[in-house]
Design brief:
Blueprint lengths: L2 E3 L9 E3 L2 H10 L7 E5 L5 E9 L2 E9 L7 E7 L3 H13 L4 E6 L9 H21 L7 E2 L3 E2 L10 E5 L8 H4 L4 E6 L7 H9 L3 E3 L8 H14 L2
Parallel strand pairs: 1-3, 6-7, 6-11, 7-8, 7-9, 10-11, 10-12
Antiparallel strand pairs: 2-5, 3-4, 4-5
Bound molecules: S-adenosylmethionine.
Amino acid sequence: MRQFFAGDKLQVGSRYYFDRNQSHHIGDVLRMKNDDEVRIVDCDSRAFTGRLFFENGKVGVTLMYENEGFEEPSVICVAALIKKEKWELMIQKACELGATRVVPLITRRTIIRLDEKEISRKLERWNKIAVEACQQCNRTTVCVVERPAVINQLDKYKQEVNLVAYENEDEVRLRDVLDSDRITFVVGPEGGFEKEEVNKLNDMGFVSVSLGNRILRAETATMFILSVIEGLR
Ligand code: SAM
């Protein structure tokens, strides 16, 4: 069943009208018809099932009943910005694998540098990728891509468990530290972290953790961590 996000609070029996983009997507791209059943998630992450209707060129849905919700863990992925294609793939996979938020991180070896104007434009694109990925995998919560941050700004993203993936860590393994479903983890860029950056993160309470003996690409490391978290739930 197709799923769509609504920007408002919804209630059973009410009618919700989609915006122009969604109406075009539903009617012209997906070629859906009157009375087709869809899932719709409101701004409070409550999921409903409804029936489509087409009226004066607009597409709407009549909400029939509310679906059983499920509490998702809170997983914040702080990932150093990497090259465009891999970065956008990483956002999409992070959404599919349950990330609640993605925080782009600027480190000493981050190759990508963005000015204020570019950041706003990029954020719009990144969050569009995130909404589409969450819609496609039927999530009831939308993963949000935050404004880029530097290491000193990461305190506000800390949760019960805070990790930094560090390939030179040879004691602590991921399985030793995942005893919560409120986790924040940090992954470095293509060139890795500088030792001082890892020390700073350790001082801030981010525990260094090894992902095994192989050196993973940054995007792979992110997907690996999210997969392990999801697999242990
Ligand atoms: N230092 C790496 C190298 O020698 O090629 C470059 C960094 S790696 C491509 C990108 C990031 O993925 C690292 O900064 C780290 O956060 C994470 N990572 C990759 N493999 C890892 C491993 N085996 N254990 C922990 N973290 C890893």
